[in-house]
Amino acid sequence: MTGLFTRRDIARLGLGFSAAAVLGRPALAQGPAFFRIGTGGTAGTYYPVGGLIANAVSNPPNLVVTAQAANGSVANVNAIASGALESGFSQSDVAFWAHTGTGLFEGKGKVDDLRLLANLYPESIHLVVSKAANIKSVADLKGKRVSLDEPGSGTLVDSKIILAGWGLSEKDVKADYLKPNQAAEKMRDGGMDAFFFVGGYPTSAITELAATSSGIDLVPIDGPQADEIRKKHAFFAADEIPAGTYKGVGATKTLAVGAQWVTSAKVPDAVVYEIVKGLWSDKTRAALDAGHAKGKFIRKETALAGVGIPVHPGAEKFYKEAGLLK
Question: Which of 63, 267, 286, 306 could be cross-linked to 59 through a Cys-Cys bond (beta carbons 3.0 to 4.6 Å apart)?
Fold first, then answer.
């Protein structure tokens, strides 16, 4: 890396690098570059994967990358837009809606500056149910106690889409809005029939629940209703959670969205170039392969798969050098 940030530049980093960009100062001056990654709740997949990437990509004292727990896709996009975060993980659907001002962001304005660093891995939609609840289909959720995940999460958005695909809405279930670990605890105590989670498998909250409760199932999100959802929302793909991923649970067909690492166009190109170069280094490859079951799915060959927003110029430079972009 050529050069370091000044203390004044560090202060600007907390504002999403916007001041530095406006003033046209060098991207890499005196002092370390701090780059935060907004992830998700500690019981999900974003948080541990974000920690692995941050530790591997950091190159102190020049570049300090940190991962922090957050409320997931929507909250991360909003934080990037406001300058509270330099980057974050987001579902591909949420990133697309934010950049185009559609879907969840309809009437809220476009997040014009949202840019892609990399597509990471597929996020599977889990519909976790207690065996005692006898829920075999999404349609069976009617009248049941169901957590749709917390406000600001991409899971909440997708859970509503799934319910609608089977002719249901929030009003048709006894809805709660909990993080997956909280929903799992409530299910273990008999106070929850089902909960949605969108993320890479396996996730610790569900693994622990399957191992310590009287039994869980995963409900298939498949068939004509799922096909219609895919036609209407192109960011969904067919997916399957393998048998044995969770104790006592067989193979389950479902839908998935891409987990993407996004940032702001205001972040200097030189910083993003170093970040993306570090992401696809041998050091990070080893950390991802050893550190999390989803790590092996994070591949340079699929870094630009399912792209619905512009690629950051700094990332674009790397991908052109790597032969992934012309």
Answer: 63
